[in-house]
Design a protein that fits this description.
heterodimer, A: alpha+beta, Outer Surface Protein A, domain 3, three-stranded antiparallel beta sheet, 5 strands, globular, B: alpha/beta, 10 strands, 12% strand
Chain lengths: 99, 393
Amino acid sequence: MVAGLVASDPLAQSWELAPGVALRPEPFGALAYHFGTRRLTFLKTPELATVVRSLGDHPDLRTALAAAHVEPRYWNAYSKALVALADAGMIRPRETSSV
Amino acid sequence: MGQFELGLDAPICLTWELTYACNLSCVHCLSSSGRRDPRELSTAQAEAVIDELQRMQVFYVNIGGGEPTVRPDFWHLLDYSVAHQVGVKFSTNGVRLTPDRASQLARTDYVDVQVSLDGATAQVNDRVRGAGSYVTALRALDNLAEAGFGNAKISVVVTRENAGQLDDFKRLADDRGATLRLTRLRPSGRGADVWDELHPTMAQQRELYSWLLANGENVLTGDSFFHLAGFGESLPGLNLCGAGRVVCLIDPIGDVYACPFAIHENFLAGNVLHDGGFAKVWRESELFTDLRSPQTSGACTKCQHFDACRGGCMAAKFFTGLPLDGPDPECVQGYGEAALAGDRVVPAASQDHSRTAPTKSAPVFVPLGVGPVAPPVHACAESPLAGLALETV
């Protein structure tokens, strides 16, 4: 669990792909594989794959979603998916200079 | 899981048999291994395959054989693969897992080791794997444990003779900090010759199912028992045949088959050297395209358990001579037994790498039960050695 590390609002959190994780594009979205834990996770839409891939380039999830043109009404669903990916060790909160 | 059935840009579970050469001659060998095929991929060709797997982002490869560690370049290819972001899980009978190799493996990231063991006692194991193979496997596992290699796997093919030893296998694994992996006996390769005598009985299948439900969290199965889902609850994993969709096999000469249990010309999709590379075979071969199209499952679709087992294992049906759109030969609802009792023709093997002369330690498998009996003869004509293939020492 990463709950303790995460800001109360995942949308306001900075994220990045965890070390040792690779994303492989697939027709349905992408596969995420963690070389350390050998875990495999399906990202079931191309949009989610795009967002996950770009997490490290944005100051928080909200900005990443906006940049990927995800409509705000879906943001809560994305937020839950990201927390699930964090629980699976695929992404992790990123240290940022601003607290 | 629609995305599985339609296929992926690259396999998730790729098996690569590096060689057909083997120091053992297990009676149920899936690949009928023994002798090296002279056309075996060279080191450079094998490296080119790994390069392509890296480009396709195949995250890891299951390396087997034959006995892969008897290839002189095995340790080089292992390092090469890991250095190219293709993790390695390899299966071995343990013959080359010396303390030095075990230490080397303990220092390498992204390597998993599976040591094959088909009996929790030497008596049960050596009957199918050959004299001395139990001691070899246990010594390899001990070497790994002593070298600090975490979480080796003990890989067991469940048979009629070892199905009662599941708790003993679990203890062997637990004592060495290893994980138990159970897989299904397939009637593939030489397995076709012994399947009738060795495949678990219906009662054993039910016990196995209960055991897996009770212990499943800590035991690996390679998703191989999905036909047991017909008993009720689905077991963890992908409950459908992944052949050509998420799974495939590259053999020692670069031939690509739909799954590790289907080394037969009917399931040959192409060759990595002659058909434009592995990616092209995986993505474009006629066979794999066909396997990814909706399958007809005949009478099985009317069964209330169809969604759970999806008709079972393609290879098990094929090699027992059952139609691919019918029930699995071990269908737990009993439809397989009925099908096996009907007219069927077991297909001839399309290749065999078995040694022509048995080695000193080769198992001489004699069914324990009452098998087909010889025509009645008077008692004094019965030799105690009748019907046995004698070893030449």
